[in-house]
Specification:
The complex is a heterodimer of chains A (about 270) and B (about 350). With about 270 residues, chain A is mostly beta strands. In chain A, about 15% of the residues lie in helices and about 65% in strands. The longest helix of chain A has 24 residues, at about 1-25.
Chain lengths: ~270, ~350
């Protein structure tokens, strides 16, 4: 338990340290901000609630902010993502529903490599993730819901390619994020939330996660289309969250088509 | 080109790292598939196999051998429901149910095979029609200055304010009859809140654990359940707690806590038991399943699943019932007025 808490503390300190650096050193550089809204499908599975998979729809919102940093000859960029989604799913027999809600915050630092006169940019670096949410089964009694709370250090990679299509500049992007290690809250196999929260029996509820028990990844494709001063962003996200901890298995597979607008800002001293 | 190659390798590696899928295990929505899923669910998650083997020889593997031949590929849905319900009844557990759209399979012999020891028409002779209500509690003062409090269900909430106000109203009484007969349980938090009014010191009243794996003996270390004295008004006079076979589940846990307080005497019939906190799950065909998942033990780690014997055993007699008297309430009044 103490070891896990120490790991969380290290991760949080790392994030705050990087965040402080970015505030003090990068004030003269362009900032790109976007807000996207999406709709899609999801597939929920959590053996704490049910041994069968639930399928349904979800709505998603994503805010992104990215900027170039001063470090390493301006070859490092920072990306902050805040994402939230809510959804409703049903079992195959259509006798029960599950509702889900999840928010996650991501902070990434990418090293940039420009190729082909800047038309292609390749980015790679670490990402810090914090996730929180729930799945609620409308039919269950003493195990009606499963809380989701976990933090990860992830590896993140991105490719950006600029093209012109009928004189219209378009930026294509592909991004993939894969958590490498982290810490997760989860009840044990048959542990009730009454034991955890009413009786305070919390031992065994914090788990170390890595690729062996959290083979999770997020793929993201976007296209930024510029119309004079307006930049439209359309995209597709495939988010595959999976865990197998404490004898409990879960997944949240979602795929969403997203659309939004991009704002380009520049802070001048 | 080398940069692109390295980067492509990086992206490919990231994707390959997380390629394994965590999906549901293969479960066919056929009579055989649902039977297998239910048997295995109980085998892996039910919490009283060893105790019930000691008590009446329950052998879950033998149950499989006996029921598997009854499952045929073309059997009707209602036939499957009946067979699965009968298989679950082998567990002799009121917390084990199978729910379809048209019926609930249950085991209720823990009270059906015993005297009711409660009659709400006769209870009305004591409670009257002008009784007071505090949250889920109904209460009145009997002719001999004994307080009578009835709590029909721990599913109905009671607040700390309710309890303080009620005990303030009853402060002048010489004793208290707390009736939890026919209380089939509900929320343990309500039971603990009420029990906290009857102790002046923190007591370990029970232990609880949970399954940590699929084996019949995969349990966590038992953790103490403690009742802490309430900060509100606490009852300091003798109490008789009335029980019958329908005092079940959270009520069973409440009786277990109350029996450890020095001013409390348990009177009536053995409680119904039900000491395993139930969890819910489901079968591939969508039927819901409930089963005991987290066992609660007494302060000496004794099993409470089949009920708690009262300190003083009293049954309602037909003679008293014919006269409109509740034998158990009458005995409780005599005990408090002795």
């Amino acid at each position: 338990m103490k070891r896990h808490l120490f790991l969380v503390w290290v991760l949080v300190c790392m994030t705050l340290h990087l965040s402080a650096q970015s505030r003090s050193e990068g004030r003269n550089y362009p900032i790109t901000r976007s807000t996207m809204y999406g709709l899609g499908t999801m597939n929920l599975y959590d053996t704490y609630l049910s041994p069968v998979e639930y399928e349904g729809v979800q709505a998603r919102v994503l805010r992104e902010s990215s900027r170039t940093m001063q470090w390493c000859d301006e070859k490092v960029s920072r990306q902050v993502l805040f994402q939230g989604h809510v959804g409703m799913a049903m079992n195959r027999a259509e006798t029960s529903n599950e509702l889900s809600g999840m928010v996650n915050w991501n902070y990434a630092l990418h090293y940039n490599i420009s190729l082909f006169d800047g038309r292609l940019r390749l980015l790679a670096g670490p990402m810090m993730q914090v996730h929180g949410g729930f799945i609620y089964n409308t039919r269950n009694g003493n195990n009606p819901a499963q809380a989701k709370l976990y933090t990860n250090v992830a590896a993140s990679g991105m490719a950006l390619y600029n093209i012109n299509w009928k004189r219209c500049p378009i930026t294509l992007r592909y991004q993939v994020d894969v958590p490498v290690m982290g810490v997760m809250f989860s009840p044990e196999y048959g542990q009730s939330y009454y034991e955890i929260f009413s009786l305070g029996h919390t031992e065994g509820t914090v788990h170390f996660t890595s690729l062996h028990n959290q083979p999770t990844m997020r793929h993201w494709l976007t296209a930024d289309v510029n119309f004079r001063k307006l930049t439209l962003r359309v995209g597709y996200m495939a988010d595959m969250q999976q865990t197998s901890v404490g004898g409990l298995k879960s997944h949240d597979y979602s795929s969403s088509f997203m659309v939004g607008f991009v704002k380009n800002l520049r802070i001048i001293d | 080109m080398r940069t692109i190659l390295y980067f492509s390798s990086f992206i490919l590696s990231l994707s390959l790292l997380a390629t394994s899928c965590i999906r549901e295990e293969d479960m066919d929505n056929t009579p055989q598939g649902n039977f297998e899923a239910l048997w295995r669910m109980m085998d892996e998650r039910y919490c009283f196999f060893d105790y019930k083997y000691e008590e009446y020889g329950l052998d879950w593997d033998e149950v499989y051998e006996r029921y598997a031949p009854l499952i045929t590929p073309d059997m009707p849905t209602k036939g499957l429901f009946e067979v699965l319900g009968n298989m679950l009844a082998e567990l002799r557990d009121g917390h084990v149910n199978l729910y379809s759209g048209y019926d609930v399979a249950r085991y209720w012999k823990w009270y059906e095979d015993y005297p009711a020891n409660f009659n709400d028409s006769i209870q009305r002779n004591y409670l009257g029609f002008d009784y007071k209500i505090a949250g889920g509690l109904r209460y009145t003062v009997l002719d001999d200055n004994i307080a009578y409090v009835y709590y029909p269900s721990f599913s109905t909430a009671v607040g700390d304010g309710n309890l303080s106000d009620m005990f303030n109203e009853l402060a002048f009484c010489n004793g208290l009859i707390l009736d939890v007969r026919n209380n089939g349980g509900g929320l343990l938090t309500n039971a603990n809140k009420l029990a906290a009014r009857f102790t002046n010191e923190e007591l370990t009243t029970a232990y609880m654990c949970h399954k940590t794996g699929t084996g019949h003996n995969d349990f966590s270390s038992p953790e103490a359940i403690k009742v802490k004295p309430s900060d509100g008004i606490r009852w300091q006079k003798p109490v008789v707690l009335l029980t019958n076979r329908s005092s079940y589940s959270a009520t069973n846990d409440f009786v277990n806590a109350m029996r450890q307080f020095p001013l409390v005497t348990v009177m009536g019939d053995c409680t119904g038991g039900g000491s395993g906190m139930p969890f819910s799950s489901e079968l591939p065909n969508g039927w819901a399943v409930r089963f005991s998942a987290c066992p609660v033990y007494g302060p000496g780690m004794e099993q409470l699943e089949f009920g708690i014997e009262p300190d003083i055993r009293v049954d309602m007699t037909s003679e008293d019932m014919a006269r409109g008297l509740d034998t158990i309430i009458e005995e409780a009044r005599k005990y408090l007025n002795r």
